Please model this.
Amino acid sequence: MKVPFLDLKAISAQYRDELVAAATRVIDSGWYVHGREHEAFEREFAEFSGAGACVGVANGLDALTLIFRAYREMGLVRPGDEVIVPANTYIASVLSVTENGLKPVLVEPDPGSFNIDPARIEDALTARTRAILPVHLYGQIADMPAICALAGKHGLLVVEDAAQAHGAELHGRKSGTWGDAAGFSFYPTKNLGALGDAGCVLTRDERLAEAIRALRNYGSQVKYHNLYQGPNSRLDEIQAAFLRVRLRHLADETRRRRRVALRYLAEIRNDEVALPRVASGSEGHVWHLFVVRVKDREGFTSHLAARGIQTAIHYPVPPHLQPCYPGLHALSRPLTEEIHREVVSLPMSPLLTDGQVDEVVSAVNAWSARPVARESLVCA
Ligand SMILES: *Cc1c(COP(=O)(O)O)cnc(C)c1O
Model:
């Protein structure tokens, strides 16, 4: 493979000494859950994001699920209430809603940016709508000024799914600081990845933060006293220690991702390959993924694979057509369905070399779905 899609082994190898030192510190401390590393990471990630409080949890899905669970405990949402969710998202966004007995109302995206289209949100509002869950898909912040304005006008909560957008900015303001709360994932493939599962909630709402701190720990604020019937969703010391290492390098890695993306945007020239649209004011895109659209996806990915270029599909099946949601199968979401048929993620990593980017660009530019006519290959 000349150009791997994402080489996690090489990403960890860059920081091997720092990661080993972090692991050693935890091993030698004799304290493995909710200790000093966890506390330090919560503080450092909150500082990095410019938000009030960071609450570490076991993974990104739990972060989102526990936000809605806390809102239920606080009496702000009730089972059966509706939450506006992008139709075009990773399944976890929708799972966090249905896990709480809430009803996801799936709204179509802007086909250029792939993010939820605020113009379509207002039509989807009903008397039972309580919250909007925008997802900053592929690393680009959704149209938060419009979404927050709508939420303000209709008295709705805004919960950001920032699992793909660590450090992303819009008009100079970071992901996770726009809404009432945000969920982040530190799954290994994310821009800020642990060496295992981890996640966090970011919020300025101290009451919400307190509720989630209890919920993540069997619903307990004081040991052996349980306020809620909570799950166990804690972020391990060793993962927190690894994340502190990765966080120190995140800004640099993001700069390197942007360089790759800017080259793709400037140098890919192929009428059959639609490039992603960067919304104005979104220079803060962190390029978790670089996603293009191609009508003949099968042909395109085989063409790249034959040249040693690995690609991925994010995602092949939209949430409303998943077997786990038979009740949503009758929905028609044509933009979302078209996107899911056409998207291809090109290699994207802070470690791509200029030479590897050259390989991707020239292979993409050489692609044509129309087979070259036989006669044209024959010299007259
Ligand atoms: C990864 C991801 C999640 C879930 O995070 P996990 O840590 O894998 O549970 C949620 N939403 C989006 C958009 C994601 O990409």
Observations:
- The longest helix spans residues 237-267.
- Residues 59-61, 89-90, 92-93, 135, 161, 163-164, 185, 187, 197, 199 surround pyridoxal-5'-phosphate (CB under 6 Å).
